[in-house]
Amino acid sequence: MPTPPLDLAPITRHLRAMAGSRILITAVHHIPVFQVLQNGPKSLADLAQHLGLKERPAMVFFPALCALEMLAFNPEGNLTLTPLGRYLTQTQQPNLVGYTGLEKNDPGVLALTELLMNDGPKDTTNGVTYVKDDDAPSPMDDPEAARFLTLALAGRAEYLARVVAEKLPQRNGHLLDVAAGTGFYTYEWLLSNPKATATVFDRPEVLKVAKELLDIFRKSGRNGAAEVRQRVSFMPGDMLTDELPAADLILAASLFHDWPTKTCIYLTQKFARALKPGGELWVHDAFLHDSLDGPLAATDYSVMLFTGTKGRIYSRQEHREWFSQAGLISTAENFPTLMDYNLISARKPEYRIF
Ligand SMILES: C[S@@+](CC[C@H](N)C(=O)[O-])C[C@H]1O[C@@H](n2cnc3c(N)ncnc32)[C@H](O)[C@@H]1O
C-alpha cells in the first residue's frame, strides 16, 4: 500500500499564525470589541456597525476572534465574550490588557488595523496580488510580478496536485482549470485520466510560466507524462469578461478566496453557464465552519487573504448558496486534501427545470 503523503499543514499553520496574533492585539487595543461586548452580547451585524467595520472585514475579524477562543456565538446566535475574552477587559481584575499592550504598536498590527477599518488598502493604484479586474493594472499582467507570484504558488500546487487529482472524478471529457496558475492540478489529473482533455485558463503572463512547468512535468519520466502536453490547451483570457470554453468539469482552486462576495456570485453563474448539462464545478479551498467560528487554520488564512487580495475565506454554506443561485445542485460531500484544503462540488442538472 502506498504511504499517504506527509501533510504539510504544520508549515502553513505556523506561516499564517502571525495573522491570529495581530487580530488579537488589534482587537484589544485598536478596534475595541472587548470593551463593547462587556456591556452584553450583540449580533455580528450590530457589532460590525458599532465598530465601523464593513461586511468583509467583519467576516474576517469576528470568526478569527472566535477561533482564538476570545469570542463565541451564544445560543441566540449573538457574539459574546468567552471566559478567556473577559481577561482582555478592564472590568476583570487583574487582566492582560496592559501586557498585550506591549505589542500594540507593532507595525503589522497597525497596518492590519488600518486595512480592517478601511476594508483593504487605501491606495490600490498598483493593483492587487492574484487579481485581474478593471479597477487597476494587474500584477498578473506584469511579466516579472506574474512570474514571481505564480512561482510562489508552484510548490504548494505541485504537492497538493496528486491528492486533488485522486479525489476529483475519474472520467473522460474536458476539464476547465480556471485561474489555473501553474496548471499542476490539470497535468496531474490528465495523467490519471488518459482519455481526458483540459483547458488551462489564466492571464497570458501566468501561462508562460505554466507552459514551462508543463515542460518539466512532461520530462519527469513518470508513466504517461510525456503525452499530457497533447491533451492540454492554454487559453489566455479574463475570466470576468471573456467567454469560457464548455467543460464537463470546472476546477476553481484557490480562486473564490481572492474575490469579494458579489464577484464570487457572478463567477459561479459564469461557470455554471460554461458547464455542459450534468457537468460539475469543483472548488478546492480552505473553508470557514458554517457557524463562522473557526477553524483557526482557516481564520488565520482568511486574515492573510484579506490583507493581500480582494477576498477572504468563505464557508461551505456561502459557496453552496452561490451554487444554488446559479442553478447548480450541491453535494453534501467534503473531501479533505492536505494543508487544511478541501474539495466540495456541485452539479449542473441534465435538464433545465422550468
Ligand atoms: C491564487 S491564484 C490560484 C492559482 C491556482 N488555481 C492554484 O490553486 O495554484 C489565482 C489565479 O487567478 C488568476 N486570475 C486573477 N484574475 C483573473 C482573471 N480576471 N482572469 C483569469 N485569471 C485570473 C491569477 O492570475 C492567478 O493565477
From TrEMBL:
Instruction: List each copy of the O-methyltransferase C-terminal domain by range.
Output: 173-327
Say which domain of life the source belongs to.
Bacteria
Question: Which InterPro entries does UniProt cross-reference here?
Answer: COMT-like, COMT_C, SAM-dependent_MTases_sf, WH-like_DNA-bd_sf, WH_DNA-bd_sf
**What Pfam family does this protein match (any one)?**
Methyltransf_2
Span-the-membrane segments of this chain are none
Q: Which GO terms describe its biological process?
A: methylation
One Gene Ontology molecular-function label: O-methyltransferase activity
Q: Which UniProt keywords apply?
A: Methyltransferase, S-adenosyl-L-methionine, Transferase
**Name of the protein described by the UniProt record:** O-methyltransferase
Q: Which organism is it from?
A: Adhaeribacter aerolatus
Taxonomic lineage is: Bacteria, Pseudomonadati, Bacteroidota, Cytophagia, Cytophagales
